[in-house]
Design brief:
mainly alpha
């Protein structure tokens, strides 16, 4: 491998990482749309039986916390 190809590879990796960090920060700075502040899952419409959220809700129902 030539030193030039190593430099190009490092520049590409650093550039992709930088784009990822920039997009993450831009996403965090985006305000939450109205009506989406407190979304709760509607497990009655979901077909996944062993979902972590559904199992937490069932534990709450069994303990009377709901």
């Amino acid at each position: 491998m030539s030193p030039l190809s190593i430099i190009v590879a490092v520049i590409l990796v650093v550039g992709l990482f930088g784009i990822n960090v920039w997009l993450y920060r831009a996403n965090q700075a985006t305000p939450v749309p109205e009506g989406c502040e407190d979304l709760t899952p509607q497990c009655a419409t979901c077909g996944i039986v062993d979902c972590a959220i559904r199992s937490k809700q069932r534990k709450g129902e069994e303990n009377g916390n709901r």
